């Protein structure tokens, strides 16, 4: 089929009739398919069921250094969990703090702490007239939700194939002291699956922000979430680069096992400089006596070490890979060459990002919904839920079964075609 | 023995020599005993070990309403956990929100939310020149730690046998709009073990604070933590009283299973009005996708219902009761009638509160430490760590074994006697 923009009105009209007939048929099937959230599928959760057998009533629940994990104490995590999550974060054991069940919660608390207590003794952000964050777009809706909730003004930064537009980032942070942070998902980014290039990471490490309390919120959510064993992205370790650049305190790095073990019942961690760790811990010691050490112990004993965790992630990949490939195949086969949308083939992470013709994203999501397919709301990948081009759609292929996914992808491409034809006919 | 204040100098001097000799002997034993924190003992933790068997790799981890507890979702708690913790809180299921592993964390987050977002749409407290909290004393050091960390000014309110001095509370909240809250441990209070009288609870419910955003932080930490089956304190349910008084939004009630199952691996909850719940949830939905549902399920299936929980608490009481009684026996036997200290015999909770002669608490704690007994730091039970009379000492008898406790109590009373003699000799 030739590109849609090379078709004349009659061709588009006749194609529309044909596609509408197809659409009516799928609609009649009354499907209920969900490609909206990056949730692991049941089969992935089953992989970690063995974790429920690690601790039993007759287990020794004392950890390496003699702490009874059942009792109070240990603010920043048991030794075994620190080792495992430091390795996962590619940092030293003394550069990591273990948290509760969710890194999102830690990011929220971190912004909240900056608001009420500032950074390293600086002015609390709530005392400032204006606080701004840079937001690479498209990005993760829950990041933008946190900054919006705290009244922080968000500035869109375009994503390039190498990561955020660093020319723009460097310029803005250097000239505006009210810019206090940037949200980054540096590896297999949400939603595009882009991994920041070495140059991008180094430019981040060398930033010269006007605000001394500027911090990079480095959400390494998909650090080991590869789809292919032999074709993986590599990300430079940012703390190390910051140290080398003489900017040791610039980054807060967040990780969790949410999509490794169980979402909601995993273990989260922060890796950062000694100075920043003191800031985190000063807050923590008033906030809690300690996080769930039994769950930390459960994780450490189940995975044993990074080899165990990588082995486990390969099993996740075996389940996820065919799903990603199924969607990508449908996109390629049905939309390839039509010039009504573009997408990136990711090597890891949880999403496929689709860019429709301008002004079409909302209509495509609505159209798919008419046939029972729930997508992430159009605009969700942008601050304030506003995609200036109304173009980006996040596809989350992890949760449905392969069969459901095939059906959902068919409905999606049909919706893209129909909405694109309408746009072209209007012109 | 006659009261110390009726002894003459010679009598005191000679007693001092005798006691110093005794003290030197215990000191030579090089003991290491800890009565500093309200930590359950190993035997108490063992009681809940069966909870580790509740979920196994072949368990159905789907809860009543079909939610897979292993995956993302469910912001405010699974149905089973809501039922259990609502019953524990003596409120309806729709008046409770389930949180993570610690009620301290929820209290901290609640103060933090009030600072950044205010109460029910009111001015964020961080935008106000002055925020004050009332602090019944002696009280819980971690409460005071939270308010101090957020720069909230704390005002001491004396505890009476019926609870906080309500004349003072009523007067202060009515005339000072900068008073935004009060910390309460209404049942088996920390450290005195006092349960608020019905009149006190009703007066709380009828408060007429000048500040619309004044809230009672009702930390019902020891609601079911009785020492005696046949001699228990009863506490009026405050939400109900507030509703009746036309003050439905006045209270935030916090509970947790920290000293029921495992400290640090329990489940926390808040019970409050519908309006307040909306405030809590609005915040929560940006802070987390959900708390640890597997741990919620584990608790619900292990305890089954309140009967199960009460039955479990009886086993805790069987372990704790002899420890409390051992300490109280030593106090009575060694200090009774000497008029150098007073204490309350609690019917539940985790502490015995001891009031020494004025100006003696710090010296007594230091003296006991010389012989290897670690007590809670004197002053810790007061805001800013400052006991104006330097009199109150918190005794935590739960963690040591009965044998250790007997030795520790002996050292404690010896320390009280020696320090008191010094004070009397100085006069």
Descriptive keywords:
homodimer, 427 residues, Aspartate Aminotransferase, domain 2, three-stranded antiparallel sheet, 14 helices
How do the strands of the widest beta sheet of chain A line up side by side?
2-9-8-7-6-3-4-5
CATH class of the largest domain in chain A: Alpha Beta
Residue fraction in strands of chain A: 5-15%
First-to-last CA distance of chain A: 21 Å
Name the assembly state: homodimer
Characterization of the model:
The structure is a homodimer of 427-residue chains. Chain A has 427 residues and is of the alpha/beta class. Chain A folds into two domains: 4-44 and 310-426, Aspartate Aminotransferase, domain 1 (Alpha-Beta Complex), CATH 3.90.1150.10; 61-304, Type I PLP-dependent aspartate aminotransferase-like (Major domain) (Aspartate Aminotransferase, domain 2, 3-Layer(aba) Sandwich). Chain A has helices at 9-28, 42-47, 51-54, 79-89, 103-117, 141-149, 166-175, 198-205, 238-244, 274-287, 293-303, 306-335, 361-370, 402-426; strands spanning 33-35, 96-98, 132-137, 153-160, 163-164, 179-184, 215-219, 251-256, 268-271, 341-343, 352-356, 373-375, 392-395. In chain A, the strands form three sheets. Chain A has an eight-stranded mixed sheet, sandwiched between helices. Chain A has a three-stranded antiparallel sheet with strand order 10-11-13, covered by helices on one side. In chain A, helix 5 runs parallel beside helix 6 (141-149). The first copy, chain A, is globular and about 75 Å long. Chain A starts with 8 loop residues before the first helix and ends with a helix. The model of chain A has no long low-confidence stretch (mean pLDDT 97). At the A-B interface, helix 3, helix 5, helix 6, helix 10 and helix 11 of A face helix 3, helix 5, helix 6, helix 10 and helix 11 of B.
């Amino acid at each position: 089929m030739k590109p849609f923009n090379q078709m004349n009105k009659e061709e588009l009209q006749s194609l529309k009739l044909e596609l509408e007939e197809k659409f009516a048929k799928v609609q009649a099937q009354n499907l209920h398919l969900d490609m909206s959230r990056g949730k692991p599928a049941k089969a992935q959760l089953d992989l970690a069921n063995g974790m429920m057998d690690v601790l039993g009533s007759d287990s020794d629940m004392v950890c390496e250094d003699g702490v009874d994990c059942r009792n109070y104490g240990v603010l920043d995590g048991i030794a075994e969990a620190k080792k495992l999550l430091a390795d996962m974060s590619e940092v030293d054991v003394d550069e990591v703090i273990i948290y509760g069940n969710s890194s999102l919660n830690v990011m929220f608390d971190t912004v909240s702490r900056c608001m009420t207590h500032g950074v390293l003794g600086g002015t609390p952000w709530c005392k400032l007239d204006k606080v701004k964050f840079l937001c690479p777009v498209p990005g993760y809706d829950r990041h933008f939700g946190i900054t919006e909730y705290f009244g922080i003004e968000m500035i869109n930064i375009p994503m390039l194939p190498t990561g955020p537009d660093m020319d723009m980032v460097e310029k803005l942070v250097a000239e505006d002291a009210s810019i206090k942070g940037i949200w980054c998902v540096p590896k297999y980014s949400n939603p595009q699956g882009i991994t920041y290039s070495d140059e991008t990471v180094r430019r981040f490490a060398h930033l010269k922000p006007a605000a001394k309390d500027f911090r990079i919120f480095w959400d390494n959510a998909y650090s080991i979430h590869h789809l292919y064993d032999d074709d993986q992205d590599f990300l430079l370790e940012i703390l190390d680069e910051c140290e080398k650049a003489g900017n040791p305190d610039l980054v807060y790095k967040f990780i969790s096992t949410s999509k490794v073990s169980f979402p909601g019942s995993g273990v989260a961690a922060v890796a950062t400089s000694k100075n920043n760790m003191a800031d985190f811990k000063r807050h923590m010691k008033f906030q809690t006596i300690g996080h769930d050490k039994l769950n930390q112990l459960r994780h450490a004993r189940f995975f044993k070490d990074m080899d165990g965790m990588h082995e486990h992630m390969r099993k996740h990949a075996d389940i996820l890979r065919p799903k990603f490939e199924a969607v990508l195949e449908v996109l390629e086969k049905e939309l390839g060459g039509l010039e009504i949308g573009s997408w990136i083939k990711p090597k890891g992470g949880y999403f496929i990002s689709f860019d429709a013709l301008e002004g079409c994203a909302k209509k495509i999501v609505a159209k798919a919904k008419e046939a029972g397919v729930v997508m992430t709301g159009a605009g969700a990948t942008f601050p304030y839920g506003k995609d200036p081009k109304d173009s980006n759609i996040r596809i989350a292929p992890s949760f449905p079964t392969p069969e459901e996914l095939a059906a959902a992808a068919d409905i999606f491409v049909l919706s893209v075609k129909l909405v694109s034809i309408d746009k072209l006919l209007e012109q």
